Input
Amino acid sequence: MDFGLNGKTALILASSKGLGRAVAESLAGEGARVILTGRDEAALEEAVKGIRGAGGTADWLKLDLSAADAADSLAERARSLAGRVDILVNNTGGPPPGSARDIDTSVLMSQAQTMVANVIRLTSLLLPDMESAGWGRVLTLASSGVEQPIPNLALSNTLRGSLVGWSKTLATEVAGQGITVNMLLPGRIHTDRVDQLDANAADRQNKSVDEVRTASKASIPAGRYGKPEEFAAVAAFLCSEPASYVTGSMVRCDGGAIRHV
Output
């Protein structure tokens, strides 16, 4: 299948490693020019080098999403670098684990700037170019916790959940202009973040990491953690030309972990 991404430019947030990097690699493999972002310059250099080595076209821009002017600065630099962004993949790191009753409101507001406010602001800044072109893709990577809250990840469940209503509303506003807006929900995809969460759970439950991981895998119908490249393949499809009639949707990539319909 031709994804129709040759000549398109994709901006991927938080893409020096993990799911963001996997998505960048997948989009580059389909012919898109990708712009990676993150705080770790060495990791970004390594990721871009790998994409270029595989025959892809890639650049990177340093970005601290917690900064108040992060969205405006990134939009300006991305346009200066590429002229126009056709595909925006919104991705942010996960907040600290913890219970709902123990949420520190100062931490909540700080994380909201990074995970919500700057994501919405950046999308709004880049939409006019997509509207002018009559084509665009906005894909927000969230978490299965927005459909089935994950224990001890109260901040993530809260903040990522707030993007659901925004994404669905935006999708209805721009669908007639050739722009799709979707969310992709990862379940247990094996990344450094998941390793950290498993280690945290092991400490909290006074168990070994292997015991926690075994129990976690047993709760997933597929019986295993997902691979970043499996998740990234779904992301690439949602950003593709053939997916032009898929919008306003939340797509799960979780091995069947979410049990409700």
Summary: The first strand starts at residue 9 and ends at 12. Strands lie at 9-12, 33-38, 57-62, 87-90, 136-141, 179-186, 250-253.
